[in-house]
């Protein structure tokens, strides 16, 4: 049974936590790896440079949308696709455990599931612009 009194706050907590994680992940790319370094890394995977910029834009815009609750349930879907792409192109061949060399796909898979939960659950409490529901 879903507790309808607390479920919006659970969605808020999940939404904001995921948004902060995306901004932290973006910060790692920008301030530690640097933008040229991240573009080079994506190139080393055989991906075109624009994929790096799309990734960073999705993390920034999607992260902010999750934190603020601006159409958060719809923002979660492209971010879930991004996590699936991360599993396929970066972490999938490193095995399950994220502690493996190069990071396995355990952590991105959890992010993917959590983002799908946001998409299914809804925007939650304190959303500045809720997505319409059927």
Can you offer a commentary on this structure?
This protein is mainly alpha-helical. The protein has one domain (6-121). It has five helices and no strands. The protein has helices at 7-33, 35-44, 49-68, 72-91, 106-121. Helix 1 (7-33) runs antiparallel to helix 3 (49-68), helix 3 (49-68) runs antiparallel to helix 4 (72-91) and helix 4 runs antiparallel to helix 5 (106-121). The longest helix is centred in the N-terminal third of the chain and has 27 residues, at 7-33. It is globular.
Keywords:
DoxX, about 130 residues, 5 helices, membrane
Order of helices and strands: HHHHH
Total number of distinct structural domains: 1
Chain oligomer state = single chain
Shape assignment = globular
Number of beta-strand segments: 0
Helix/strand/pairing category? mainly alpha
Low-confidence stretches: none
Q: Strand count, sense and closure of the main sheet? A: none
Helix content: 55-70%
Beta-strand content estimate: under 5%
What is the terminal separation in angstroms? Answer: 21 Å
Mean pLDDT: 93
The count of helical stretches stands at: 5
> Radius of gyration in whole Å, from Cα?
16 Å
Family: Belongs to the DoxX family.
Keywords: Cell membrane, Membrane, Transmembrane, Transmembrane helix
Subcellular location: Cell membrane
Main location: membrane
